[in-house]
Amino acid sequence: MTAAVALVFLCHLPDARVTAQGTSSQPTIAVLATGGTIAGAAATNVQAGYTSGQVGVEQLIAAVPEAKKLANLRGEQISNIGSQDMNDEVWLKLANRVNALVTMPEVSGVVITHGTDTIEETAYFLNLVVKSKKPVVMTAAMRPATALSADGPLNFFNAVAVAANKDAAGRGVLVVLNDWIHGAASLTKTSTTAVQTFLSPQSGLIGTVAYGDIEFFRAPIGKHTADSEFSLSGVTALPRVDIIMAHENMDGALIDAAVTAGAKGIVIAGVGNGNLTQSAVNALAAQAKKGIVCVRASRVVTGRVGRNVELDDDKLGFVASLDKNPQKARVLLRLALLQPRNVKDVQRIFDEY
Ligand code: ASP
Known about the structure:
By secondary structure, the protein is an alpha/beta fold. 27% of the residues lie in helices and 19% in strands. It binds aspartic acid (ASP).
């Protein structure tokens, strides 16, 4: 055997430390797949059209054999949907499963694959209801698994690396995308198609991860996970909260319609600092008086919505969303409304989380 042939042969020997299940010295990470583009497939590798949620969890794990060198991976399929179809049934199933897994001593952390459209909502929901300091890391992809330069495999690898890292513990639910580690409360999707779509525009990143090499910068904003007062114990349904976007010439019709449809809370994606027309303010204040909890957020991507800036929240009975965008405000309000609360208590919750 020539030296060159021997070298090629050696390079193809299986790594003695790694088996299909990993090794006993490695941490065990549960991988929960929910669907999304990371599990999406298209007919060719260079086309915009594709279908989310085509690839199962075992295939997804098998596509990134390098991840098994970081941890023993145990796959479970929670759903296989585009995250535009994310719903309360899947949320409750997912959250309850994560809460069960994190109590198992042999499970070191959880990785959840998801679509990018609503990952920020699911991440924030889990951030508020998972009762553990163990790492829970979400990831996704902008390009389907079949695409040229698919981003899913490296995102998955990096997510496993973060979940297997002891320093990830106690930082709440993390979202790993395109080398960046975001906190669940801060990230938002900013581009419909770009791979670099997620930003934490207001408060910045929790850290970075490059080919599994992790650097943490800081703790996430807001109370979370083990310190959260919210619990899903005994919860089978979440209260309805609608988001209504403000705009030029807005009237109160959609505000009233939301209440007629059963909303217990309304989040306004206001203009500027959570503003809306006088006629919409009047409609919202009338609903607030009847006990509907009304939160002013903003359709603007950065900046806080403060209390009593151009509108007198104290007098009108509104809650200011502070640093929560409308979709995060909706998640928080739904959990807050699992029990009856006055406006002051809901504002306290928006301050703390
Ligand atoms: N529509 C897809 C989803 O959210 C988009 C993606 O995953 O990038 O499931």
